[in-house]
Design goal:
The complex is a heterodimer of chains A (293) and B (173).
Chain A lengths: L5 H19 L2 H35 L3 H39 L7 E13 L4 E5 L12 E4 L2 E9 L4 E5 L6 E6 L5 E7 L8 E7 L11 E5 L11 E5 L3 E2 L6 E7 L8 E7 L21
Chain B lengths: L1 H25 L10 H10 L2 H18 L6 H16 L8 H23 L7 H35 L12
Helix pairs in contact in B: 1-3, 1-6, 2-3, 2-4, 2-5, 3-4, 4-5, 5-6
């Protein structure tokens, strides 16, 4: 066994000094250091994302013209279908607006959709995050909902100059209010850890005992307006089994999430056009005093 | 000293960037490479205490800034592992490269285990957490076999190009 000389103890002494300084360092200095180092890294991620996009574009350019014509034909058909559906939706929206006016219902929150490219997926055993290519330059608010064609993606947790960080719905740190399709009673959704052998998962709790999925008919978990962040009705995942919880009153069970969450390239951020709800509470700044009616 | 630190830091930033791109590509397979050993070993085994810890500490802050973990966690872990390697390097000679690679594996394992315990929260009692980490760690150590020699050579050549000769530094070994 080698002797422990003072020279060898030097790194540990320096580590002790560093720890001592770290604990007395004001939080704003730590935040400043973190933000600065983050902003130094962000252009590197953006550059790799732009290169990936360029690769895709160049790859698409190698395709034969006949394939392009076929794709255009398919797209024009889909466009026609979407135009038809949009017309129906506008009629429905107008009908709902009239009903709301007649019944004197409070107005529902409206959102602006901001499309953003995914720069980086950071999915590990500790956290599940996405970095997107839009930040303060597009007025992305912290706490905004992020969605894709398959439903809920997550929530914006950090906004930087040109990028934002999104906590994925599968992250163990993610939690939101939810409800079952066709049932207005609120339940709680939590992200959960999953292994390499399973699909992305979450966990639902506070489920009323009368709700039971069957093997051929799983329950669909959708977002609830109660949290104030997500509009109601966005798909979160499906539930194939429920078991009694610890309290014996409610049920709990795993939620199967969409596997496309692991390969996302583009997402939509829902930016609320008004941050306040009918009661005047600002969901993105809960400490703010409700506005006078 | 400043040149050594800056050059090694630049190679670390390059490696972290490449790793982030690889992990982005590996995400559909739910795999994540964890290679902190590469960011600690060379500096801890070849530089004096002060520049070695400065390099490793700044690298730790760089890694901390990119993730949601409490700022400073990876910095402390990296510095602690670097301190252990510094203690072990008396029994190691620069010519014995195999031992350097073994120490790199040891540093990687220690750093990931420390991070797993500190960042696991209630998950440290769950089997799925450890299974996922074990698979990621096994893959990372497999990748380390070809990656460590290349990366250490890259660091050595970068220092040589910048005119830094480690063999002339009597206290660095």
């Amino acid at each position: 066994m080698a002797k422990f000389s003072p020279a060898q103890a030097k790194p540990f002494i320096l580590l002790g000094v560093f720890l001592g300084l770290w604990f007395v360092l004001p939080v704003f200095l730590k935040n400043f250091a973190r933000d600065t180092l983050y902003e130094f890294q962000a252009p590197l991620w953006t550059a790799s994302s732009v290169v990936r996009d360029l690769q895709t574009t160049l790859h698409l350019r190698t395709r034969p013209r006949s394939e392009l014509v076929e794709a255009l034909r398919d797209l024009s058909r889909e466009n026609a279908l979407h135009r038809l559906e949009r017309g129906h939706r506008e009629l429905d929206a107008e009908y709902m607006r009239r009903l709301e006016h007649l019944l004197n219902l409070p107005s529902r929150p409206e959102y602006q959709y901001e499309i953003a490219r995914v720069v980086r997926r950071d999915l590990n055993a500790w956290w599940q995050r996405l970095t997107i290519r839009k930040g303060r330059d597009y007025d992305i608010p912290v706490g905004a909902a992020v969605v894709f064609a398959g439903g809920v993606v997550g929530r914006v947790v950090e906004v930087h100059a040109f990028t934002s960080e999104v906590e994925l719905v599968s992250s163990p740190l993610f939690r939101m209010a939810a409800q079952f399709e066709g049932d207005l009673r609120p339940v709680t959704y939590n992200g959960a850890r999953h292994t390499q052998f399973s699909i992305p998962q979450g966990r639902v709790s506070d489920v009323p005992p009368d709700l039971q999925p069957s093997p051929g008919r799983p329950l669909t978990l959708v977002s609830s307006e109660l949290g104030g962040v997500f509009p109601a009705g966005l798909t979160i995942g499906t539930i194939h089994e429920l078991a009694p919880g610890r309290d014996g009153l409610f049920q709990t069970g795993p939620v199967r999430l969409d596997e496309r969450l692991l390969t996302l390239r583009e997402v939509s951020i829902l930016i609320p056009l008004t941050h306040t709800d009918a009661a005047g509470l600002d969901w993105f700044n809960p400490e703010a005093v409700p506005a006078e009616p | 000293m400043a040149r050594q630190v800056l050059i090694l830091l630049a190679t670390h930033v390059l490696l972290i960037w490449i790793l982030q791109m690889v992990n982005h590509a590996l995400s559909p397979w739910k795999l994540h490479l964890l290679l902190p050993g590469l960011l600690i070993t060379f500096a801890a085994l070849n530089l004096r205490a002060w520049p070695a810890l400065l390099t490793v500490g700044l690298t730790g802050l760089w890694v901390d800034a990119a993730g949601p973990a409490p700022f400073g966690v990876f910095t402390v872990i990296y510095l602690l592992v670097a301190g252990i390697l510094f203690r072990l390097r008396i029994q190691w000679h620069r010519e014995q490269r195999r031992e350097a690679y073994s120490l790199c594996h040891l540093a990687n394992f220690l750093a990931v285990c420390a991070a797993a315990l500190l960042l696991g929260g209630p998950g440290v009692l769950q089997g799925t957490y450890w299974l996922r980490l074990a698979i990621d760690l096994a893959l990372s150590h497999l990748i380390l076999f070809p990656l460590a020699p290349w990366f250490f050579k890259l660091q050595l050549r970068s220092l040589e190009i910048a005119g830094v000769d480690l063999s002339r530094d009597p206290d660095s070994h």
